[in-house]
Amino acid sequence: MEQIIDKYFRPGRLPHIWCPGCGNGIITGAIVKAVDKLALEKNDVAVVSGIGCSSRASGYLDFNTVHSAHGRALPVATGVKLGQPRLKVIVVTGDGDATAIGGNHFIHAARRNIDLTVVLFNNNIYGMTGGQYSPLTPANSKATTAPYGTVDRPFDVTELAKGAGATFVARSTTFHTQLLVDVIAQGIQHEGFSLIEAITACPISFGRQNKMGGAPDMMKWQKDRGVMLAAYEKMTDEQKEGKFPIGVLYKTEAPEYSAEYDKVIARVQKGAK
Ligand code: SF4
Ligand code: MG
């Protein structure tokens, strides 16, 4: 582990700012383990983040990094990918950042099938900005903006990504760490828009407001509910109650945006209209 920290984390940036028991460090660790597993050169990786607890990850990592504006990681990452198509571009974002403020960017990046790997840290809440509910907060959950429970129906962000045109969609949790490394690595290798929903424990904001106990209780919550897709599909509707599928949920092939764009450039350079 120390070798990984020395190799992939910027000197002098740790300790991180995340609260005790926060799962964000596990996801950040999973990203570097996935890069390490694929034996990618650090200079061939770019990490682009938005704003929020999740998005602090880019500041700790020793890759090419951009810490952008709230909700705007995807347009910035799109520019990075089009300018430097050789780069493996990883976007770190949160549930509020990606699906509320950046929701429009999210669906259009998926629709274009641009080769970005989006690791969405889903802590079910706006942690950094004060505990407001997000589009992924489960209905009836408490938040500072819903002290009696939200009546909003949440997105299933994996279905949203799939419906919008993403070609690789996976989910894991901070309990299922090896799976998380594996699906991030697969997402990086996939040529197209990849979404990895990483369900993370936020004991200090979401957990505290919803009386979920400490980090170990929240990890147990993940362990008890995450079911590998193949087993989940065999369950009855009754058995599925309160559970969610994990693993690779959807994968298909489609033309990739930056490659298609390169073809247009080549055609125009040859003088074609
Ligand atoms: Fe982690 Fe939640 Fe604290 Fe943010 S508020 S650092 S997500 S525990
Ligand atoms: Mg969040």
TrEMBL record:
CDD domains annotated for this entry?
Answer: TPP_OGFOR (cd03375)
List, alphabetically, the InterPro entries matched: 2-oxoacid:Fd_oxidoreductase, THDP-binding, TPP_enzyme_TPP-bd
Pfam family for this entry, one: TPP_enzyme_C
Name the Gene Ontology biological process terms.
cellular respiration
Protein's UniProt keywords contain Oxidoreductase: yes
This protein's source sits in the domain of life called Bacteria
Keywords of this entry: Oxidoreductase
Q: Which Gene3D superfamilies match?
A: 3.40.50.970
The family database entries (PANTHER family) matched by this protein are listed as: 2-OXOGLUTARATE OXIDOREDUCTASE SUBUNIT KORB-RELATED, 2-OXOGLUTARATE SYNTHASE SUBUNIT KORB
Q: From the Swiss-Prot or TrEMBL record, give the protein name.
A: 2-oxoglutarate ferredoxin oxidoreductase subunit beta
Q: What is the lineage of its organism?
A: Bacteria, Bacillati, Bacillota, Negativicutes, Acetonemataceae
